[in-house]
Amino acid sequence: MPEIKNSFFQGKINKDLDERLIPNGQYRDALNIEVSTSEGDDVGTVQSVKGNTLVSGDIVPTGSSIVGEIIEEKNNCIYYFVAGPKTTRSNNGNGQTFSASDTQPTISKDLILKYDGSSITNVFTDVYRYLAVFDTSGGTDLSYDVSAQTITFPNTDIYKQSLVTNMYVNVFDTSGVEYVRNNRILSANGVTGVITLENKIDDLDGVAITNLILEITHKDNKRPLNFEPAYPVTGINIVDDF
Is pLDDT at 101 greater than 90 in this prediction? Predict the structure, then answer.
């Protein structure tokens, strides 16, 4: 009995012709297969592929939105571009001015996550805004030293973990009066929770911490990733494994 061999190098489904007339290189129907692109002698052969697996919604933080994604077949993983919940000084997410009743501190960030089927790796994090009130009325107040040009945070990890140098500090009150603007962080001590600023903060001299709000951002609120839920990221490519 003759052996029939057929390659599928054209990668084309042909449903128009009778199945007895379909030329070599094409096929009538397919399910869960891929045509090999090997440089060896198995080029054009059909190989089975694994089916899809439902990924838990817990892959991104609560309130976040996936604005883009790309599959990296080489390493069998997928990258997610994630826009996190955004809080501003004038909008806490509910259309209200940020205040002591909001989460302290509130940290806004965008993420690039890598999922390999079993674990999630944080590839890149852009913490672009940090908001906290000075007077929490709960024993975890912030304080400042005008002469030393420093601001001291409560001695808890949640306050200290996102403090980094070369971000910029703004201090204002609930009525919008600014006392510090675009003052660069020269040093951030993750143990003591003290940040030292580049420029003087004399305008805070004698100002009570009541109603003061601290904002840490990139200079002029410019964001490296700048993900927005309303604007999907398209045309993503992986170049040199990134």
Answer: no
| SS3 state of residue 100 | coil
Helix (H) or strand (E) holding 159: helix 157-160
Beta strand 150-152 with 106-115: parallel, antiparallel or unpaired?
unpaired
pLDDT band at 41 (very low <50, low <70, confident <90, very high): low
Residues with Cβ within 8 Å of residue 85, at least 6 apart in sequence: 61, 62, 63, 64, 93, 108
Name residues whose C-beta falls within 8 Å of residue 119's C-beta, 6 or more positions apart in sequence: none
* Residue 76: predicted pLDDT: 83
- How many whole angstroms separate alpha carbon 47 and alpha carbon 62? 39
Q: What would the two tokens of residue 227 be? A: 């993900």
Nearest to 44 by CA among 4, 3, 5, 10: 10
Q: How far is CA 139 from CA 142, 144, 161, 188, in A?
A: 9, 15, 19, 22
Question: How far is residue 218's CA from residue 235's CA, in Å, rounded to a whole number?
Answer: 26
d(CA 1, CA 222): 72
- Tokens describing residue 46: 């059909």
58 φ, ψ (degrees, to nearest 5): -75, 5
- Whole-angstrom CA distances from 240 to 26, 74, 235, 237 are 33, 11, 16, 10
Looking at residues 145-174, what average pLDDT do you find?
90
Contact 160/169 with Cβ under 8 angstroms? no
